[in-house]
Amino acid sequence: MEQSMSDTPEFPVFPRELSWLAFNGRVLQEAADERNPPIERLRFLGIYSNNMDEFFRVRVADVKRRILLKKYQSGEQEDAEDLLQEIQQQVLQLGQRFNAIYLDIQLELRKHNIELIDNFKLGELQSGWVKSYFRDEVIKHISPMILSGDEVSLPKALEDNTTYLMVEMTGSAKPQYAIVQVPTNELSRFIELPLHLNTRKKNGHYRRQILLLDDVIVHCIADLFAGFFEFEHIQAYSLKLTRDAEYNISDTLDQSLIDKMSKGIRQRLKSEPVRLVYDNAMPEQMLKVLSKQLGTSSVDSLIPGSRYRNFKDFIGFPNIGHQSLEFPALPPLKSPEFEQAATSFDAIRSGDILLYYPYHNFGYFTEWVRQASFDPKVTHIKMTMYRVAKHSRVIHSLLDAVRNGKKVTVVVELKARFDEENNINWARKMTEAGIQVVFGLTTLKIHSKLCLISRMERGKLMHYGHIGTGNFNEKTARIYTDMSLFTCHQEITAEIDQVFEFIEYSYRPYQFNHLIVSPTWSRPRLIALIQREIDFAISGRKAEIFLKVNNLVDQQIVDLLYRAAQAGVKIRIIVRGMCSLMPGAAGKNQNIKIISVLDRFLEHARVYVFHNGGETDVYLSSADWMTRNIDQRVEVGVPIYDVRLKQQVLDTLDIQWRDNVKARIIDAKQSNAYVKRGNKRSIRSQQQIYDYFVRQHGQHKHTEHE
């Protein structure tokens, strides 16, 4: 449960949970946007669903804990019950919007000869094929859970955010109930029916039809249970359970508070489901049985929905039609600095290098580590690991480095939310290979994006460093916008080395003159940077702050930004997700302007710009302006000293600020109104940034079909 530095806000703030829902509303806007290709619109629905799962697992779970703990907490508390009611109301409204958009996209896909059908629309030949497919491919992956007696503990048996079907069999002496898991880990969720079985259009072409795996099982549900149970009628309805994502509540609550709580309350904090979403066509009696089995007594945990659960799978919806149904490719651009050098080390030694993913190729980072794995001059590789790909080329290079006699140290964050299992598996494999695996500090997440490679050159040890805003993950580097700085600036690389020392030996004294390092050194540094702009404004000089972050909710920083605006500091902010600042509220902050850009790539880079009396300071960072990032994690920000690279960062921020296609205004109500284009030319910033780097590098221009 994240605590603010200030208990009572000095200025008006927007509730972060509702701000998060406003962000997911922007995702729905992308799904509704007919300028986007229909397959991409469908994938945005998948992103929305995945986001909403995380929202309930984290944010709603936190609100429910606050309600549960209210009587144990002293002091004035926000009315969590009212907040939860507002959340539920908005979630239902968003759900209705979601369903309408889904129907609209289905109609659009039909125009392109693609049809999503359910089991009720199957013809005789199609039904026969589906039954054969079920027997040959599906049934071997299904083992129903029978709900009778106390043999099955459903709360323990159901996996989080997995699609299930609840089955009811009637006609015998007593109704029988069972749970069937939809095996999406073993089979594709989307089953394309053979063309010769599909509906032929008037022009002679076949309509391509897709049936969800859920409907395959529902269509054959009687075959699954026949011979084992007697029934005259059988029906199945979908459901999905969402649990609290906090695996260690004691990390987020004051220990004295935990001591006060009864054993029963502590157990409820860890085990009570946050959300049960079910097909709203499910009969009332089935829902009662399900609720009783799950012990879900809270009405606000039960959320009716549409026929299908786990729309997150739609993120990977296949394009079985024309390529125009999805975004055209933007081929990653080449880096002239890396391309023109004999080795990655030669390139970095010639000057700092900035890469902006996915516009640039992430392969330059993996190639740098690959070269280090066998370079005879390299002695030591150090890296932080928060989220990496399942089949990580980066880690394979680290394993190669150990085989080549290099010393390798990897700081692994085992509590990277939703990536715990992947990180544990990699940590085990690296340890077995001889890599020194460090798990860091028990009370702090390691969220920084650091790599330090040490190399003997002419009898001296030289350090080459990387500091970035995103993870070392080849997969997400294709869809997240992130910035990476490669440098051999010896004072900066020495401070990177200090960060690695701090992670292992946090009790030692450290000093950082260049880097902004959380937890100990970040807050006073950020406050000082903001205060410096306030001082400039008070003295009558130009004062500006330009931020790009994912989330802005730290109360002390928010209050300081309000005060800066009152003092005359011009503040521009590009925020992707949660934002507590309320531009225009109570007339206190006319100097604050905030937008949010949402498009085909997920905006993930964090950039801080301070005018500094004309000597502009620009920082890249792994940290958002949230209490957890400033006080409770190891995060690192780096200044950009190279004048050319600094200008590139400023230029890209300016392009985003002028976006009038995919930018929304963040106002006091967070109503997500688009920035008005007026008579200005169309600026879609992600495409414009790509074209900007094409011009910078003198490479072939790619044209996107709008």
UniProtKB/TrEMBL annotation:
<feature type="domain" description="Polyphosphate kinase middle">
    <location>
        <begin position="126"/>
        <end position="317"/>
    </location>
</feature>
<feature type="binding site">
    <location>
        <position position="480"/>
    </location>
    <ligand>
        <name>ATP</name>
    </ligand>
</feature>
<feature type="domain" description="Polyphosphate kinase C-terminal">
    <location>
        <begin position="515"/>
        <end position="686"/>
    </location>
</feature>
<dbReference type="InterPro" id="IPR036832">
    <property type="entry name" value="PPK_N_dom_sf"/>
</dbReference>
<keyword id="KW-0479">Metal-binding</keyword>
<feature type="binding site">
    <location>
        <position position="417"/>
    </location>
    <ligand>
        <name>Mg(2+)</name>
    </ligand>
</feature>
<feature type="binding site">
    <location>
        <position position="387"/>
    </location>
    <ligand>
        <name>Mg(2+)</name>
    </ligand>
</feature>
<dbReference type="InterPro" id="IPR024953">
    <property type="entry name" value="PP_kinase_middle"/>
</dbReference>
<dbReference type="InterPro" id="IPR003414">
    <property type="entry name" value="PP_kinase"/>
</dbReference>
<dbReference type="Pfam" id="PF02503">
    <property type="entry name" value="PP_kinase"/>
</dbReference>
<dbReference type="InterPro" id="IPR025200">
    <property type="entry name" value="PPK_C_dom2"/>
</dbReference>
<dbReference type="InterPro" id="IPR036830">
    <property type="entry name" value="PP_kinase_middle_dom_sf"/>
</dbReference>
<feature type="binding site">
    <location>
        <position position="604"/>
    </location>
    <ligand>
        <name>ATP</name>
    </ligand>
</feature>
<comment type="function">
    <text>Catalyzes the reversible transfer of the terminal phosphate of ATP to form a long-chain polyphosphate (polyP).</text>
</comment>
<keyword id="KW-0067">ATP-binding</keyword>
<dbReference type="Pfam" id="PF17941">
    <property type="entry name" value="PP_kinase_C_1"/>
</dbReference>
<keyword id="KW-0418">Kinase</keyword>
<comment type="similarity">
    <text>Belongs to the polyphosphate kinase 1 (PPK1) family.</text>
</comment>
<feature type="domain" description="Polyphosphate kinase C-terminal">
    <location>
        <begin position="344"/>
        <end position="507"/>
    </location>
</feature>
<dbReference type="InterPro" id="IPR041108">
    <property type="entry name" value="PP_kinase_C_1"/>
</dbReference>
<keyword id="KW-0808">Transferase</keyword>
<feature type="domain" description="Polyphosphate kinase N-terminal">
    <location>
        <begin position="14"/>
        <end position="116"/>
    </location>
</feature>
<feature type="binding site">
    <location>
        <position position="576"/>
    </location>
    <ligand>
        <name>ATP</name>
    </ligand>
</feature>
<feature type="active site" description="Phosphohistidine intermediate">
    <location>
        <position position="447"/>
    </location>
</feature>
<keyword id="KW-0597">Phosphoprotein</keyword>
<dbReference type="Pfam" id="PF13089">
    <property type="entry name" value="PP_kinase_N"/>
</dbReference>
<keyword id="KW-0460">Magnesium</keyword>
<protein>
    <recommendedName>
        <fullName>Polyphosphate kinase</fullName>
        <ecNumber>2.7.4.1</ecNumber>
    </recommendedName>
</protein>
<dbReference type="InterPro" id="IPR025198">
    <property type="entry name" value="PPK_N_dom"/>
</dbReference>
<dbReference type="Pfam" id="PF13090">
    <property type="entry name" value="PP_kinase_C"/>
</dbReference>
<keyword id="KW-0547">Nucleotide-binding</keyword>
<dbReference type="GO" id="GO:0008976">
    <property type="term" value="F:polyphosphate kinase activity"/>
</dbReference>
<feature type="binding site">
    <location>
        <position position="51"/>
    </location>
    <ligand>
        <name>ATP</name>
    </ligand>
</feature>
